[in-house]
Structure formats: C-alpha cells, structure tokens
Amino acid sequence: MVEDQSDSSEFVWVNDAQESGQSHVEVRGTVGLPSDSNDEEEGTTVQMRLPDELADEIISLYDELDGDFYQRYGERLEPNQLFWANGVQVMLNHADEIREQIGVK
Q: Highest taxon of the source (predicted)?
C-alpha cells in the first residue's frame, strides 16, 4: 500500500504509477492550508481521478472562494469541513442532474 505523503489539505490523485505499485503520489495543487497535526479529523478519505482541466477548475474555484472567505471572516476556508463537504452536499442535492448527464435517468 502506498503511503499518502501529503497533508489533508492537498489535492491528491491516484496516478497509473501508484496503481501499478510504484510509490509515487502526485500533488496537483494545494487546496487550503495544512491541517494542524494535533487535530484528529473524522471522516473517510475519498480519492478520485479527474481530468487535469477539471482539477484546475476545482482548484481555481477553491482559491476564489478562499479569497472571498478570508475577506469576509479573516481566516482561510477550511477545505475538508467547508469546501469539500459542502461541495459534495450540493452534488447530492442535484443527483437527478448527475443521472441525466451520465444517461441513467
């Protein structure tokens, strides 16, 4: 098993080298600030493979929202509890749209 060499705030994807057993983790870009190593995060880590263009769009969206959040609240947008959790919730709230896009509606 490949050990994840990133912190929880980095956007990591599984590449072919990793799947073939080589220990290589690629970091696409950071999404937020490093987590405090003393904090214990609850939840499940989900890895996903995305086209580079889509990953770029997600990172760009996070950066934009992080800037807006910082201007409003004076702190960084926490990636796992705010960005990803709410992003996935929006996706779940629009499951019919996803079904339509993948052709199973």
A: Archaea
Q: For residue 57, what is the enclosing H or E element? A: helix 52-73
The C-alpha atoms of residue 18 and residue 63 are separated, in whole angstroms, by 27
Q: Which residues contact 68 (CB under 8 A, 6 or more apart)?
A: none
Q: Is the pTM of this model over 0.90?
A: no
- Report the relative pairing of strands 26-30 and 10-13 from DSSP bridges: antiparallel
- Predicted pLDDT of residue 30: 46
Mind giving me the DSSP string for 17-47?
HHHTT----EEEEE-SPPPPTTPPPPS----
